[in-house]
Amino acid sequence: MQTRTLPLLFALLLAAVDASAERYRFRHFGPEDGLNAAVSRLVQDRAGFLWVGTGNGLFRYDGARFQRFGVEEGLPSASVRCLEEGPDGTFWVVTGRGLARFRKNSFQVVETGAAGQDLRALDIGADGKVYLGFDRGLLVGVVPPHGGTPRFVPVPYAPQDQVNGILAEPNGDVWFACGLQLCLLRQGRVRVFDQTYGLPPEHWGVILRDRAGDLWVRGPQHLYVLSRGDRRFLARDRDLPQSSNSGLSLFEDRQGRMLVSTDRGLARSINGRWELTGIAQGLQSETVTAILEDREGSIWLGLWGSGVARWPGPDEWTNWTTADGLGNDVVWAVRRD
Q1: With contact defined as beta carbons under 8 Å apart, do 131 and 124 qualify?
Q2: Which end of the chain has fewer CB within 10 Å, C or N?
Q3: What CA–CA distance (Å, rounded) separates 172 from 157?
């Protein structure tokens, strides 16, 4: 009798405990695993490798170990700002001293002119065009056939303002931050979106189109969305903590939930509210700087100062131990009063 009722009793215990006390099983990777702790970007390439951009090197994880790439391997600088894989499989990296691409298992520096040390954003269109944001505007480069060296030129009519975020859409549209506003490049023309369209002044660092067709923009203070077919952006940042400039990240998981980096942990949109996962739930740091869901459904989080955390699944079982107030980790009976 006791054996059959134990699973039910255990489920009752889970339901009775405040959700804020939940702890999850995270696997943390840091200096002891050969990884720099100051993580800025996460990308999974088509081969399945996890790439981790940090303040002191780019790391590739093959499931067993982290391999570091730095200046000695061809990067212009060990400080990594942006990562993207192109449609042809070429891997592009923006560093603190310029642009590089990964070809034939080594990095090659790609000249971008005077913008080299001011690069801040990167995205690649379905047609292979490489877009770069820097302190004074937007650059575009076309990669010649057979992997030749692209020549970067300023995008005509783009404002000469700081560009912190870029989204190159499959239809050829390019959204990019332009100073404290948002701009759209469409068929050679640039359109500016500001307070007239509901957007407050902000350094927009992340731009995302979700599977429903809605456009999301994230800055250090604000999160706004332009629903498909609407003309005005609406705020979605009620009760959402701010995020560091160096740690802006926005991701849609396979359940369609928005995952947002904040200075108080990972924020997930669940039933119309933001649920935070931080130190109390098992993370070693609450300053989330990068978010990625891999092909297996695991969530990877970049943590500034604490490396990377792997979350096997947000919907997994949670557990409570002596760290949460139990007198002992060995539990013999569970009962609701």
Answers
A1: yes
A2: C
A3: 17
Task: End-to-end CA distance of the chain: give it in Å, rounded.
Answer: 19
Which residue has tokens 């919907």?
315
For 247, the token pair is 């740690």
Q: What is the DSSP letter of 2?
A: H
Q: b/e per residue, 160-182, with b = 16+ CB within 10 A?
A: ebbbbbbbbbeeeebbbbbbbbb
Structure tokens that stand for 160 in this block: 């000469």
Contact 280, 320 (CB under 8 A): no
Reading phi first (left if > 0) and then psi (alpha if -120 to 50, else beta), residue 110 is in beta
Per-residue pLDDT of the chain (337 residues; tens, 9 = 90+): 444 444 544 444 444 444 445 778 899 999 999 999 999 999 999 999 999 999 999 999 999 999 999 999 999 999 999 999 999 999 999 999 999 999 878 899 999 988 878 999 999 999 999 999 999 999 999 988 877 889 999 999 999 999 999 999 999 999 999 999 999 999 999 999 999 999 999 999 999 999 999 999 999 999 999 999 999 999 999 999 999 866 799 999 999 999 999 999 999 999 999 999 999 999 999 999 999 999 999 999 999 999 999 998 666 555 667 766 788 878 888 887 8
pTM of the model: 0.87
CA-to-CA distance for 289 and 266, rounded, in angstroms?
Answer: 9
φ/ψ of 167, rounded to 5, equals -135, 110
* Number of Cβ atoms within 10 Å of the Cβ of 109: 15
